[in-house]
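[audit] Reproducing an earlier prediction to check determinism. Same input, same settings, fresh worker. If the tokens differ from the archived copy the diff job will pick it up downstream; this log only records the rerun itself.
[audit] input (564 residues):
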Amino acid sequence: MSLERRIAVARGDEPADLVLRGGRVLSVFTREWLDLDVAVVDGVVAGLGTYEGAERLDVSGRYIVPGFIDAHVHIETTKLLVGEFARLVLPLGTTAVVADPHEIANVLGTDGVHWLLDACSGLPLDVYFMASSCVPASAFESPRRPLTPGDLEGLLRRRRVIGLAEMMNFPGVIAGAATELAKLRLNEPEARHVDGHAPGVLGKALNAYAAAGIRSDHEAYTAEEGRQRLRAGMWLLIREASAARNLRALLPLVQEFGPHRIAFCTDDREPEHIAEDGHVNAIVRDAVAFGIRPEDALLMASHHPALWHRLDHLGAIAPGYQADLLVLGDLETFVPELVLKSGRPVGELPAIEVPEWVRHTVRIRPVGLADFRIPWQGGQARVIGLVADQIVTDSLVEEPRVEQGLAVADPERDLAKIAVVERHLGTGRIGLGFVRGFGLQRGALASTFAHDAHNVVVVGMNDEDMALAVGRLAELGGGIVAVADREVRAELPLPVAGLLSDAPLEEVIERSHAAVAAAVALGCTFPAPFQVLAFLALSVIPKLKLTDRGLVDVDRFELVPLEA
């Protein structure tokens, strides 16, 4: 790229490579629409005005906006290799993402993160990483091995690693735990850039969290949480995922305060959800339908993620910015008619090589019926209570049904059995409990994709189907599976770290659809059942969760017995 040539094109002394003419251009700086040409040279916007170019593109009657940026995403949730992920989201207008790779970090450590970084290097999608700060998320979870401050320091040296990912151990940060403060000090003083994760934290506890230098949070799920984060000087990342849908609860804050220091993120979206509903563009669409001005919604989807993450060359259509441009036919659907990445249409995407060492990660001792039995002499039990459209749960107390001295699932009361099986080191450790709200009437659902340590999580109505589901996942080398009447009804193999498929996008979506349909046939009432299941093992989301080490009361941040 010649800086002299860019300046000459900007002056109008030389023709641009490409000129987009006749469209209405969004200025993210003034929130106005400009009736000007966009001149592109060497993949960069040279200027706005009246220009000539080697190639001219008539976009009359169209809107030209910056490419969308996902402010916080776990690519692994899509179950897709990064090339297939790019093939899915680029046509929807997402031209850059900021990823936290803590899924693969829990399974494969820093080696897995370095492999994922390398796999992204040849993509037209810009993928930036945050160094996963909480592997494990808490002392109650069992990854393959914890990441040390030294591990994080090594990751932060990589060119596209731009900060510390979500600090999920918010109790540790607030209490001033030395282990967590050591991680925060890796990024200080001048380069500190830390994402947050503090669901339900308010008042002085939030002050302590923000005082640690954490400047964003995507876990707010009420307007008051969001309001307090903005007042504390934090960026509010509004999440609209597959299981956690916070958009409608938080958009009133945009109406109250304007879009300042607010950005959009998807966090965890299933592949079929993206294919059918959209990615960041769907959040923009739904925000505008809610009543947010299109200019403000587009700002939160492009310029603001770039501002928060200090990606100074992205998120705007202005001289010197990377020419990631979307041509929209309207300001209602937000489905791009054309996506230009660095001034060019997106071409064929390179195939991603998958080395053998990232496979074969499911190491489980053989399980049988006895592993899922819960001896019970009567009395009440702690029960995980599901909450619609959220990943937070209630902590309930129920008296389980007892048969022959064993606590069992009870379809009449929507009470299912749940287990988490350690799968990295073959320890045989299993946590057992109960969950209300899945709607299951029979069978079992199981997954090796289980936030964040990604041990096996299984929910079911009988021990036989639960044992079969876990055994099948071991045979597959990871995945998701639905079982009923001692028979596998649907499965999606995820042989890459037990998290990702090596199949094409279309096959992954088809199999994911089939697994969800099988879950629905078993009575499941959630639109994203495996996403909901995955979060039941995450011990840093209130209120009650289950890991291989047992039940975790997240509010008290301690292990508690099943007996209430």
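[audit] rerun output stored. Observation attached for the diff report: The first strand starts at residue 16 and ends at 21.
[audit] end
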